[in-house]
Amino acid sequence: MKSWKTSAAGIGAILVAIGSAMTAHFDGDALTTPDWGAVIAAVIAGIGLLAARDNNVSSESAGAK
Length: 65
Prior knowledge:
- The structure is a single chain.
- This protein is mostly helical and 65 residues long.
- The chain has one domain.
- The chain has three helices and no strands.
- It has helices at 4-25, 36-51, 59-62.
- α1 runs antiparallel to α2.
- It is rod-shaped.
- The protein starts with a helix and ends with a helix.
- The relative contact order is 0.25.
């Protein structure tokens, strides 16, 4: 993992999105529902961060041609 900063941010975004959805779903209050649009948006952003490269990582060291 050469771009550890953006990868860590991506993993964090995905975990927070899923965690907040699970908390809202299983909190025992029928009136609380997850905002699935926000969850999907955060997961997509996290996937984008996993695919991104840190600013201080060169193209060559990241394996780009």
